[in-house]
Amino acid sequence: MGIGAYIIYFIIIMIIPIWAQAKVRNAYSKYSQVENSTGMTGAQVARRILDHNGLYDVQIEEVPGTLSDHYDPSDKVVRLSTDIYHGNTIAGTAVAAHEVGHAIQDDKDYAPLRMRHALVPLANIGSSLSWLFILAGMLLHLAGAALIGVIFFGMAVLFQIVTLPVEFNASSRALNQIVDLGIVQSDEKRHARKVLTAAALTYVAAALVAVLELLRFILMFIGLNNNEND
Question: Which pTM was predicted?
Fold first, then answer.
């Protein structure tokens, strides 16, 4: 791959996540200005869905930051950022419901969620050590070291790929819940879907960039291995 191709490649993998982040922030910003018809806050939405699904033991906590919302399976807590927790907007409704979607997945023993949890330590090891082995392999012309790095990085990529069905399923559950419970009206459903779709794009972008990087590393390993065998 020539220098020009490398430049184009790196521009692409930089633009993809930036574009995805812009989409989610634009959607969040737009629908953070639109109040939901029920007047329910994000915390109330989360509690309503949790109770409807019998998840009375799952707590809801306020956390600082913007879009720092998440579900903690170890403590059984849905954590909502301040704006989401107290706000009564379409964006807040969608985000709160999405995080509760993860709590429902946890309760239902959703297989991809379990797989993602199992992959966390491997992904952490892979993302932190892969570069060292790949760099050592390239600099020292050691195909074996590069291969180890590729395998490590592959574990991190697998985590990104498994994350996709987890996030899409949580969004699907969220949309169904807020519609079935009458938390949003028919005209609001479309807006909530836009927020959830934009958020999902960030995970798609991360997975796509990870796959592209893995393919690049595989090609580098093949080239290095061929040179060793010549």
Answer: 0.88
